[in-house]
Amino acid sequence: MRKGLGKWMSMTLAAAVLLTGAGCSGKSGNGEAEPSGSSSPAPTQTAVSSPSAEASPWAAKKFDPPVTISSAIAIRDLDKLRGGDTYEDNPLTRWYKDNLGIVTKYKWLLTDQGDALNQKIRLALASGEELPDVLPIDDNVLLNELIESGQIMSIDEMFDKYASPRTKEAYEKNPDVWTAVTKDGKKWGLPQISDGNIGDSIMWVRQDWLDAVGLPAPKTLAEFEAVLAAFKAKYPGKTPLAVSGKAMQPLAGYMGDAEFVFGATQPYIWDESADGKLQYGSVQPGFKSGLSKIKEWFDKGYINKEFATHDEQKAASLFTSGDAGIIFGPGWMGAWPLEDTTKNVDGAVVKPYELPSGVDGEVGRIGTKLVYITYVFRKGFEHMDALFQYYDVSMGSLLEDPDSPFAAGAGEGYDYVMKDGKPSWDVPDGAIELRYTIATVGNTPPGMLTGETIFERVAAGKKDTIYEQKLAFSSSPLYLEGRIVSFKQLDKARRNKFIGAPVPTMVSKWPLLTQMESEATVSYIYGKTTDADLDKYMQDWMSKGGQKVTDEVNAWYASSK
Predict the structure, then answer these.
(1) pTM
(2) CB neighbours (10 Å) of residue 124?
(3) What is the Cα–Cα distance from 107 to 392, expressed in whole angstroms?
(4) Which residue of 258, 338, 389, 506 has the fewest C-beta atoms within 10 A of its own C-beta?
């Protein structure tokens, strides 16, 4: 499904690096921490606590003697170490050892090539090799295999007993994430909660083109079409709308998607119908309506004739080179690649906007996945109390906790340095990401902060906290604008509600059904098939396994509640 982990990890790297201080675009001042001003600061986001969480007797502790927790990691080419550090002995691992008494050990240290970690886990299951204590899993099929193997344990009781108040609160506010790991009424892992919007699309527009044709940013489909027509008339040799169509799900790439056209009924995902059951969007009437509109734009030259061969980066390059006037994609695109537009095109002005409505008059987009990573625990692992202490510490910086040991960054000398007693993100030789951890929260869980977002505060010039100072140093104005817009229309995201392991018929039939879906989409837009052919595709999809898949998905959905 779209918004998968691989896409998110590979293509939001630029934004992630910016947040850790590696990027220099849009620097503010000299990159050093500033003292808080004497005047009262504007309201900031604050962590909120529920009564049930506050009543917990949980307390931070250090383990003496130290406990060792083993895990596994796949090392990437960009993973670097400095000053004689190792994967098990670096600023991150030393902090957890010195302050919590938790020693990091990597039982498996792999080269990150494709599916290396998942393959290693499957080999261990087949050979009977003992698993590490903690494993990060990004594959629902593998998660199910681990559950069936009996080699991992459920965590229900241990979560209740050992999780910190703010950890429990994060999951209370995002209960749907448990669906991804629940089977037979038990929780078989700790799902890492997505921030809820990192992959959600917004509309990026050449503002100078809009100004040239004298039109405002479109809010409806009719207004959007008027803009496309005006762009084509004003710039006949250009492409009004950049779309990526090379992926298996052609209109839902992580950059250059066309999701908004479909409104509230999004293709490629399982969403609830009026009767409360799950239905697949690509065989609903709204799919045909959306494709018909996109075909109309294709025929009028609003979309590049080779769009079906364009991957996401190619679609983005149409915009950054000055050939296209609109592209849809996440808010982080303001950091990369869209800020290149003004470097490549004299006079170009790029601006992010909220989505216009689609063919049904509603605003919609495919929402960011609820869960990207799940941590599973070896059966017999005896240190879940230490694990949850570790996990709680990782949440602090995501909640802008001033007392977090990682407020300035993950490690001095890597993503920040100290200058005159203050942190600076202007790191000699460039910042390096430190990710040698056992289990971390990963993202700020939705609902855990209230008030203005940090992006809004920094865009307004606030640098009162160390978090604001860090973001101000490392972020360009366009990135901040994009992230601000990405927090709007949150209720319009349609998230895939099938997040379990593939149901039985999916294993054998889903590749065929997905291929049918892809071919039907592209052939219809290119005019190679008719409305009648599209209707037949929907009928064939159901008869060739789709109906059985739908029944099984709904059986899973009913059992997961």
Answers:
(1) 0.88
(2) 19
(3) 23
(4) 506
